[in-house]
Every structure is written in structure tokens, then in C-alpha cells.
């Protein structure tokens, strides 16, 4: 299996003979409005360019969208991806949103779905604590996914979740070989609502699944994410996890 970090949470997976695009945010640097960041940083998003040429992302065999917030499914993705590509979403509301852009093969992950020999299973998640979701119901539902293909490592992509029972349960149930965590610790408004995992959650995930290789992403691309790659790398070194955690740069290819 090959995993390329495109930017933020956008991944290009090569599993078997398939090219699978996950959470495509394909727009140019500065093409999206800033989020209401606690830090006061009002840079337009994304704050960096794509790490992979756009032309290499427009012919996937499958697209997986963990949720349709604009940093995971942006207007550029909606405009540029082929209308016939199989596109997996977490629920009916997201299916309606994506279908409205003209996509004709949108499938809801209410059960395991097999596409081209790869089985995709939706997992739970939560875009903030119970208190945060009560204050910011607009955050809505989020999901993770587990992908399996014969002869390939099992990969779990946790999605835009904080560390919670749903993530722990997915690690225990699916026993993934590779775990992708969104660790930018996105933080909103004056109340400093944390809506995403941070650096310390890499250590938590390792303790919960010590056999898995962890890949930390969703950093240094959005104005409300406060954890840097160097912060995660420092924590990895402090805990002696250099061989078990990767913190890729945009455009970097990992092979498992």
C-alpha cells in the first residue's frame, strides 16, 4: 500500500490496483474563507498549495469523503472530479449534497461497501467534546473509515474526531496496521473550542494499538489548526516512537 499526503486531510491511497482519493480539498491556496480561529489568525484557507500536482488527482478509481466540511470536500473537488467516479459518504445528508453537484454514483456507508476488491467500513467519531457540540451544533456528524484489500495492510482513517470511545473502539475492533490521525488540534472562537485531535493523541493511539504504524496529518494547512508537525515530531522523539509514527510533509509518499 502507498499513501501520499496531498495536503491537510487529503490522501491519495494506492491499494491493490486502485487509486483512492480521501477527503479531497483541491482548491488553490487562499481559495476558502478563514475559520473563526481562537488564535485570531484570519489567513484564507488553505494556507499552502497542494503538495501533488492537481492533474494527478483527477482520475481516481474511488473517492471517500468522511464528511463534507469544506476542508474535506471543497468547491474545487465538486467541480473537477469525474461525475462517474464511485463516491462514498457517511450519510444521507452528505449524499444529497454531493449528488447535487452531479455525481451519479454516490453511495452511503451504512454497511460495508466493496469497490474493486477494497472493502470500506465507516467508523464513528465526534468533532469535539459533548460540550463543544452542544455549543456548536453546526459541526454535525463526522466519521472515520477502515479500508481492507487482500494482501494489503488494513488502514484506519480516524477522520475529524477528538480522541474518544469511538476511536478506541475502532482500534480495538478493526486492529488496523496503519492508523491516520488528524492531529492539528483545530480550535475555534474565543472559547477555544477544540474540535480535533492534537499531538498527545498520537501517544494515546500508540498505547491503544501498539502494533500499528501511525500517520499524523491535518496540520499546517488551515488557519485554525494550532499543532505543528514539529510539535508532533518532538513528542514522538520524547516517547521513543520514531519507528512507529510518521509525520509526512505535503506530497510525501509512504509505503507500507
Automatic annotation (TrEMBL):
Keyword line: Hydrolase
Family annotation (Pfam families): Lactamase_B_2 (PF12706)
Record's signal peptide: none
InterPro entries in the cross-refs: Metallo-B-lactamas (IPR001279), RibonucZ/Hydroxyglut_hydro (IPR036866), UPF0173_UPF0282_UlaG_hydrolase (IPR050114)
A GO molecular-function annotation: hydrolase activity
Start and end residues of each Metallo-beta-lactamase domain: 19-219
SUPFAM superfamilies assigned: Metallo-hydrolase/oxidoreductase
Stored PANTHER family: L-ASCORBATE-6-PHOSPHATE LACTONASE ULAG-RELATED, UPF0173 METAL-DEPENDENT HYDROLASE MJ1163-RELATED
Record protein name field: Metallo-beta-lactamase domain-containing protein
Amino acid at each position: 500500500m502507498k499513501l501520499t499526503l496531498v495536503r491537510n486531510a487529503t490522501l491519495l491511497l494506492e491499494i491493490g490496483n486502485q487509486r483512492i482519493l480521501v477527503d479531497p480539498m483541491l482548491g488553490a491556496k487562499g481559495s476558502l474563507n478563514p475559520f473563526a480561529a481562537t488564535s485570531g489568525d484570519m489567513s484564507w484557507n488553505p494556507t499552502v498549495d497542494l503538495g501533488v500536482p492537481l492533474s494527478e488527482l483527477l482520475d481516481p478509481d474511488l473517492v471517500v469523503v468522511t464528511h463534507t466540511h469544506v476542508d474535506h470536500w471543497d468547491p474545487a473537488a465538486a467541480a473537477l472530479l469525474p461525475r462517474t467516479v464511485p463516491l462514498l459518504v457517511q450519510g444521507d445528508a452528505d449524499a444529497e449534497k454531493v449528488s447535487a453537484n452531479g455525481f451519479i454514483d454516490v453511495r452511503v456507508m451504512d454497511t460495508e461497501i466493496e469497490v474493486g476488491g477494497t472493502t470500506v467500513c465507516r467508523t464513528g467519531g465526534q468533532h469535539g467534546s459533548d460540550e463543544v457540540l452542544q455549543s456548536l451544533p453546526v459541526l454535525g456528524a463526522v466519521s472515520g473509515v477502515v479500508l481492507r484489500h487482500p494482501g494489503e495492510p488494513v488502514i484506519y482513517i480516524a477522520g475529524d474526531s477528538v480522541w474518544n470511545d469511538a476511536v478506541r473502539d475502532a482500534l480495538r475492533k478493526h486492529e488496523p496496521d496503519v492508523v491516520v490521525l488528524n492531529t492539528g488540534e483545530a480550535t475555534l472562537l474565543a472559547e477555544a473550542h477544540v474540535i480535533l485531535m492534537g499531538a498527545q493523541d498520537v501517544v494515546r493511539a500508540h498505547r491503544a494499538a501498539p502494533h500499528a504504524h501511525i500517520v499524523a496529518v491535518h496540520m499546517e494547512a488551515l488557519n485554525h489548526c494550532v499543532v505543528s508537525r514539529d510539535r508532533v515530531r518532538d513528542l514522538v522523539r520524547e516517547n521513543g516512537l520514531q519507528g512507529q509514527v510518521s509525520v509526512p510533509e505535503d506530497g510525501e509518499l509512504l509505503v507500507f
